[in-house]
TrEMBL record, chain A:
Reactions it catalyzes: N(6)-[(R)-lipoyl]-L-lysyl-[protein] + 3-methyl-2-oxobutanoate + H(+) = N(6)-[(R)-S(8)-2-methylpropanoyldihydrolipoyl]-L-lysyl-[protein] + CO2
UniProt domain Dehydrogenase E1 component: residue ranges: 97-363
Protein's UniProt name: 2-oxoisovalerate dehydrogenase subunit alpha
Biased composition (Low complexity): 30-46, 416-436
Species, as recorded: Myceligenerans indicum
TrEMBL record, chain B:
First and last residue of the signal peptide: none
Native species: Myceligenerans indicum
SUPFAM superfamilies listed in its UniProt record: Thiamin diphosphate-binding fold (THDP-binding), TK C-terminal domain-like
Protein name in UniProt: Alpha-ketoacid dehydrogenase subunit beta
Keywords assigned: Oxidoreductase, Thiamine pyrophosphate
Taxonomic placement: Bacteria, Bacillati, Actinomycetota, Actinomycetes, Micrococcales
Top-level taxon of the source organism: Bacteria
Amino acid sequence: MRPDPEGLLPATEPVTLIDSDGAPVTTARAADVPPEAAVPPAGVGPQTQALDPADHSRTATGAQAGPVSHPAPPYGAGAGYWQLPPGPALVAALRGMIAARRFNDQAYALVRQGRLAVYPSSHGQEACQVAAAQVLSDGDWLFPTYRDTAAVVARGVDPGETLTLLSGEWHHGWDVHAHHVAPLTTPLATQLPHAVGVAHAARLRGEDTVVLALCGDGGTSEGDFHEALNFAAVLHAPVVFLVQNNTFAISVPLSRQTAAPSLAHKGAGYGIPGERVDGNDAAALLAVLGAAVDAARAGGGPRLVEAHTYRIQAHTNADDATRYREDDEVAAWSRRDPVDRLRTFLTERGDIDEADLAAFADDAERMAARLREELATDVRHDPSELFEHVYATPTPQLREQLAMLTDEAIRDRPAGDTAPPARAEAAGLAAPTTGTSDPGGAR
Amino acid sequence: MNEKLTMAQALNRALRDAMTADESVSVFGEDVGRLGGVFRITDGLTAEFGEDRCFDTPLAEAGIVGLAVGMAMNGMRPVVEMQFDAFSYPAFEQITSHVAKMRNRTRGQVPMPMVIRVPFAGGIGGVEHHSDSSEAYFAHTPGLHVVTPSEPADAYGLLRAAIASDDPVVFLEPKKLYFGADEVDLDLPVAPIGRAVVRRPGTDATLIAYGPSVPVALDAAAAAAAEGRSLQVVDVRSLQPFDDETVSRAVRSTGRAVVVAEAPGFVSVASEIAARVTERCWDALAAPVARVTGLDIPYPPPKLEHLHLPDVDRVLDAVDDLRWEGA
């Protein structure tokens, strides 16, 4: 058992949503609700989980929690009840999650077809992916990791451009400044200090920009996670850190990653309010992340949100998840599928009907078709680009190396090829290729 | 306008003038605010420009450089201070994986106009971790520029150029030269990054040095002159990009060369210079290019550092070995 010293750290149950009448509500069907997410019966004092470092009087039993009928508290106030987001926001989330699921499945298939070098899937984490994008305004920034391509798509980036890194064509695909989405970051947690820097620069200029930075449970062990939280708190930077705790860091379970009562608790040591949320409940995510973004925008400083979810597929297509986890566990989490949950909830409530669902599926299918098409298109690589962006102006040494590459290309061109030996058209190297691993141009 | 300034004062003036000229320039790091930095390079900047433009950060180098990456992504020109050379290592991942690669990663969309100032090298009697020569780590990393001044005027000019650069610059400040004063003309045009300079003309052999080793080379040349040997001294100034043209021309004019540097010689910038000079000047060389470097040992304790550092005698011994028979 992890230590959870009463009186020092609050309880860590995921947040509870309430409807406009103050009644608890969940998108999980009764059979699917994990024990730790069980909703307390109406009238029973709720557990608290918001960590407000300024409030040392609260206890793990939530003694100060308000009545059930009380409106949703401001973020970090500690009552643990959050207003259910309005119907249109939930429908928009479902639509995005259906697209995200289709995107994940399509990308996974593209690996098997050799179109992508590798794909770290967020199948099962679509609620986190879509909510992270949906709570942001146009001027806000999103900082994704390599597993967050679905969030990038949800933010409005072209799906094909989202996968440039993983296709092997280049390290990054989309327009960073047009979308305010940072490149996918592969080294763990290193993007988090960058998120603080973007937020701090905006704050110095008096802008109301909020930055939402993603990382995983494994990333919380990295030094950069802790430095970023500390810097954000000290600088009062408007950053929302969303930790997608998907239970495994490749093969290593959370119990080998931390002895803390929860990852949300890690904010307390830095003076950052933390919140724990069911990461497969899109409604809860929208409520908590939305409030966190609002608080950061209003000058409340950074927020930490831990979303407990599950990576249904292996770390990447190159990983074998059967070596470190049981099928039963995967099956149990599959029954809590975030897309199914929200679809069922909204269907039963009458927000959507079969025609809506068919339209969402059609949209997703069109996106997948466009993605297949984009990745089937040969990219014409110009070898000069290898040197073009190392510095603002290539150094003399880089110009020499480009000349060498160009000479090689001319020397190696097929007999009879009399194409002009222009640098960009250097035969062979400027011909269509499929990237670094397949010079035969099979794609 | 000429002024007599120490290198520390010249660097301070460069920061002040850059901050006055461009309000996107901001300075941060450990103790750079009220204290003015442990070497006083940022003295008075917080008072003059305010807490938003020059501020103390938490004590975490990766966080400092990571913060700078984000600020550079969002329109700023950060100038960060690593307190001492060996204390920059926690930031190594941020520097090599992000500062150096962001422009290339994003095909030029997201440049990293920042300066990472590093007080570096030895000769000040510093205890362990206060005297490392870390230039090879950075010069080896594509995407970074690496410069080091050897005199106050260059300290001013190179720092202005580094701050104005749209590429990240690791700015290595030789600690032992901080408090040597010289005449500085602040109105001279700023020397571009990437240019070496001949500090002393000579005809018999060329000494190639940078940063803290330039005064050693100049002293050696003066001593050699007294013995009737004319040594030319080249100050490399910019380690990346490297000025092959100036260095090769200088070596060709004498036919003999010695590279002088404090860092351990194995897989060093001195080795790279020796190799480049050999490849480019082979037909003009009367002797193999020699290297006088630090020993291949961890930086020694203060009472032993004199055994490690290149000095005039070691340089002159190397010059003596440049196959003068029949010359």
